[in-house]
Design the sequence.
C-alpha cells in the first residue's frame, strides 16, 4: 500500500486573481449568450444546471467560508448552436429573512457567526438550509440540494423557488437528503430503467443512513435504513448494481466550541490520523448484512465511481491526507494553499471475502470534482474527467481539466491558467453514441483577466486541442460547487 504524499509549497498563481472569483454576485440575469468563440456543437442540446454560493456576504457581513454562502442556481441552456443564460438565488427561508433584516440571522455550518460575538451565537443550533451544493433535474422536478436538510424545488424554466420539497411525502420536515445523488443507468430492481439513488444521514454517537431509490418519474421504488457505529461525516457515496459504498472518514466531533458560539459545527471536526478510514458497504437489496473494510487514514469528500469486477469491489476517490480545513487562517481568502493538503485520486480495491483492501494513487496532481460518462456509473469504465491544478505537484486552485485513460494511464490536460480558475467538469455523451469518450466536457471557469465567467465546451476525444466553443458571460459567477447536465429540458429562449 502506498502512503499519501505531503503537501508542498506552491506560488504559481496570483492570489488576487483567485480571490476576485469570490466576489458576491447579487444580480439575477436572463439573456441569450452573444459572445461566443468557436462553434457550439449542433448535437449538444440540453441544460447545464449548476449550484454554488452566489453571495459571500450578507449585506456586507462576510461569510467565514464559501460553503456558508447562499445558494444561487445558474442555467445555461443549449440548443441548435445557441445558448441562453439565467441565474437566480434559491429563496430559502434564511435568504428571505436575512435580506429583509439586512444582517446575518443564522450561524453557518462552516463558521459564519451572527454579529454580537459568542454571547449572540451560543446554543443557537438552528440550521440555515442554504440550498447551495448541487442541483438536479429528476422526475420532472428541478431540486436544489444541501446535504443536511430537505431539497428546495425550483421552476426549471424561470428558476423561481417553489418551496421545500418532501419528495411526495418520502421526507419528513428537516430530514437530510444528500447533495450527491447518483443515477444508476440501469436498475434491475426497476425493470432496468435508470434510477436516482440517494441517502440521508443522521449522526451523533452512532449514525443512521437512509437510502432511497427513485424511478424516472420521481416515485420512490426502494428504501431502507441502516445503523452504523460512531460519528460519520458522509458527504458523498458511490454505487454499483449491488452496493452503496460510503467512506467513514476518521474524524471525531467535539461540539463544545460549537455550542459555546465560538466555531461552526464543521470547524469542530477533528481528523484522527491513527484511525483507519472505513469503507461501509451496504447491499442495495436492503436485506444482506453490511460489510466494513478498513483503509489507510485519509479524508474523502468525493468519489469518482465504483464498480464490481473479478469478485472485487473497486472505488476511485479523491483523498486528502487529512481534513482540508483552513489550517488556522482567519479568513478563507487568506488561505495558505501550501499548508492545506491537495486532493489526489486513489483507486481502492476491496475484497469483501477477506474484508481487506489495497490502494494505489492514480492522479498525484491536486484534483477535485471527478466525473465520467453517465452510462458507466457503477460499472467498469475507462475515462475519468476531473478538475486539476495547473502545476503537477502541491496544492493550488483548480485551473485545468484532466482526462485520464484508466486503461493506459494516458492523461490529457487543458489548462485555463494563468488567469483562469476551473471547477467541476461535466461530461455529456454525444446522443446515440456508444463510444465512452464520444461527447463533450463542459467546464465553467472564472477568467480573472475579464473578471467574468465563461463556459468552455471541449471535445472529449480532443482535449488538448482546447475548447471547440467558449461562451463568454458578461459578468462573473462566484466559484460554484456541483451541477448536472440534463438532455430532458431546455429553457425556451
Ligand atoms: Fe460535493
Sequence:
Amino acid at each position: 500500500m502506498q502512503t499519501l504524499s505531503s503537501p508542498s509549497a506552491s506560488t504559481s498563481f496570483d492570489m488576487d486573481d483567485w480571490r476576485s472569483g469570490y466576489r458576491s454576485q447579487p444580480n439575477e440575469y436572463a439573456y441569450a449568450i452573444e459572445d461566443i468563440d468557436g462553434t457550439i456543437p449542433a448535437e449538444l442540446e440540453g441544460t447545464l444546471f449548476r449550484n454554488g454560493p452566489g453571495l459571500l456576504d450578507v449585506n456586507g457581513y462576510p461569510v467565514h467560508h464559501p460553503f456558508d454562502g447562499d445558494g444561487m442556481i445558474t442555467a445555461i441552456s443549449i440548443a441548435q448552436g445557441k445558448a441562453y443564460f439565467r441565474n437566480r438565488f434559491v429563496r430559502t427561508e434564511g435568504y428571505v429573512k436575512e435580506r429583509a433584516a439586512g444582517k446575518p440571522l443564522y450561524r453557518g455550518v462552516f463558521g459564519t457567526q451572527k454579529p454580537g460575538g459568542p454571547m449572540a451565537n451560543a446554543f443557537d443550533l438552528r440550521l440555515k438550509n442554504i440550498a447551495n451544493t448541487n442541483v438536479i433535474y429528476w422526475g420532472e422536478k428541478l431540486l436544489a440540494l444541501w446535504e443536511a436538510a430537505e431539497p428546495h424545488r425550483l421552476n426549471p424554466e424561470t428558476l423561481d423557488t417553489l418551496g421545500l420539497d418532501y419528495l411526495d411525502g418520502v421526507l419528513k420536515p428537516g430530514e437530510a437528503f444528500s447533495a450527491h445523488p447518483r443515477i444508476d443507468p440501469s436498475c434491475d430492481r426497476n425493470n432496468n430503467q435508470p434510477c436516482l439513488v440517494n441517502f440521508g444521514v443522521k449522526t451523533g454517537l452512532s449514525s443512521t443512513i437512509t437510502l432511497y431509490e427513485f424511478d424516472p418519474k420521481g416515485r420512490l421504488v426502494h428504501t431502507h435504513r441502516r445503523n452504523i457505529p460512531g460519528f460519520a461525516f458522509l458527504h458523498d457515496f458511490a454505487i454499483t448494481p449491488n452496493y452503496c459504498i460510503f467512506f467513514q472518514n476518521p474524524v471525531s466531533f467535539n461540539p463544545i466550541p460549537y455550542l459555546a458560539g465560538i466555531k461552526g459545527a464543521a470547524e469542530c471536526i477533528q481528523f484522527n490520523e491513527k484511525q483507519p478510514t472505513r469503507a461501509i458497504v451496504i447491499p442495495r437489496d436492503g436485506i444482506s448484512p453490511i460489510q466494513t473494510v478498513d483503509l489507510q487514514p485519509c479524508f474523502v469528500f468525493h468519489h469518482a465511481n465504483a464498480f464490481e469486477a473479478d469478485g472485487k469491489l473497486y472505488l476511485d476517490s479523491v483523498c486528502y491526507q487529512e481534513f482540508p480545513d483552513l489550517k488556522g487562517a482567519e479568513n478563507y481568502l487568506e488561505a495558505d494553499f501550501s499548508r492545506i493538503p491537495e486532493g489526489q485520486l486513489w483507486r481502492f480495491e476491496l475484497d469483501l471475502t477477506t474484508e481487506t483492501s489495497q490502494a494505489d494513487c492514480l492522479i498525484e496532481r491536486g484534483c477535485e470534482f471527478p466525473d465520467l460518462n453517465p452510462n458507466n456509473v457503477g460499472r467498469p469504465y475507462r475515462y475519468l474527467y476531473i478538475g486539476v491544478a495547473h502545476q503537477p505537484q502541491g496544492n493550488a486552485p483548480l485551473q485545468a481539466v484532466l482526462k485520464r485513460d484508466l486503461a493506459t494511464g494516458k492523461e490529457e490536460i487543458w489548462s485555463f491558467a494563468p488567469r483562469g480558475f476551473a471547477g467541476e467538469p461535466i461530461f455529456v455523451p454525444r446522443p446515440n453514441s456508444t463510444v465512452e469518450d464520444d461527447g463533450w466536457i463542459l467546464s465553467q471557469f472564472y477568467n480573472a483577466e475579464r473578471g467574468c465567467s465563461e463556459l468552455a465546451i471541449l471535445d472529449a476525444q480532443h482535449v488538448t486541442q482546447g475548447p471547440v466553443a467558449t461562451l463568454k458571460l458578461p459578468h462573473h459567477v462566484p466559484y460554484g460547487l456541483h451541477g448536472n447536465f440534463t438532455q430532458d429540458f431546455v429553457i425556451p429562449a
About this structure: Residues 15-486 form a domain with the Methylamine Dehydrogenase; Chain H fold (CATH 2.130.10). Confidence is low (pLDDT under 50) at residues 1-10. The first helix runs from residue 15 to 20. The chain has one domain: 15-486.
